[in-house]
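Q: What does the assembled structure look like for these inputs?
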Amino acid sequence: MSGGPVIVDSGGANISSLRFALGRIGCKAPLTADPGLITRASHVFLPGVGAAADAMRRLEERGLADLVRGLQQPVLGICLGMQLLYEYSAEDGGQACLGVVPGRVEKLVAAPDRPVPHMGWNLTSLAGDSPLFAGLPGAAHFYFVHSYAAPVSPDTIAVADYGGELTAAVGHGNFFGTQFHPERSGPAGARVLQNFLGL
Amino acid sequence: MRAGRVVKGVRFRDHRDMGGILELAGRYRDEGADELVFYDITASPGGRSVDRSWVTRVAELLDIPFCVAGGIRDLATAEGVLADGADKISINTPALEDPALIDQLARRFGSQCVVIGIDSRREPAGEGGGWQVASHTGDPDRTRYGRRATLDWVREVQDRGAGEIVLNCMDSDGVRNGYDIEQLAAVREACMVPLIASGGAGAPAHFVEVFHRARVDGALAATVFHSGQIPIPELKELLADNGIEVRR
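A:
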């Protein structure tokens, strides 16, 4: 590995806010779909907004699905990018995902005082022993925008509550994911990005 | 905003210059605002679109979500604003003129990006006891009322895929006598998506009141923050002391 951090260009996703957030902490990560650049990168960001089926199709069309599965360096999936790390998402009638983190992503259930998408700041409990949360308190507010979520599992490293506990962040080997948007989560989010780059 | 500057009026008239966009955005980021909304009030009345060269600069600066409102009347414009780094777009007059635009935006970008701004006032005496929607509120000479009843419009925009509603209560806008609790509580009953109160904040207690009594998800204010009259950290402390969960 010789390159710096990169952002995987999975197409269609609005990633400028991630690029800007990395810029604010002094990290210039190119947006790329180039397999060589991604393979050589020190850290790989997998962003994503939109729907799981579209995102998986775009990764596969660009030959990136298998490539991401095989990465050995730290990988951070953000929002939909985190959901894609799991084996399966219930979105779009059911979609096989990258399968590098065990488990399935399910639809959030709306209630009269709990609209879906879950949108806004939510107090999130952080695993004290995860390097992703070094320097942060045991709980902090992060910004969420999502309609699907992963249930809490042994790989869960942060938990938020929205009509039940959900995985706010996950870590499995070199694969990490945040359901929240660190790039829009103020100083706490910047700290998560910085911690990831320190892995 | 008007011509690259932040302005604020009273009841939608007599706008005063409040500072540069980036300067204020940075200040609010540092003070702990949870989200910013940028309204280009000159856009819709002139029948033209916004100069959006500032959106990218704001996106570079902010580490909190922000929403752009004003003159977004088609998918291409919305796409451009989102690609420049805005998290949400807010539609007001164009949604009233072409409600199907809400469906199109929600299908294309997801409900989470689509905020509907509603300017609403009490119906004049003799026209019923409810509230009515106004359009073209950026220009007092072109403002139109009464096309729709507010509660009907609140229901319709949700059916069409709106992900959030900002209700700007015109009778209380800029007067700083408190949010329009009665109207907001009525809209809350009809609103299943996040509801943001706007118009009338004048004192810290007004924020406590609107969260407790109208059960809104967020409270928007301009004048009291622009002027520095209510510092956001102190406001958040007061809200927390009153049992309202806030990010600090």
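Chain B has a mean pLDDT of 89.
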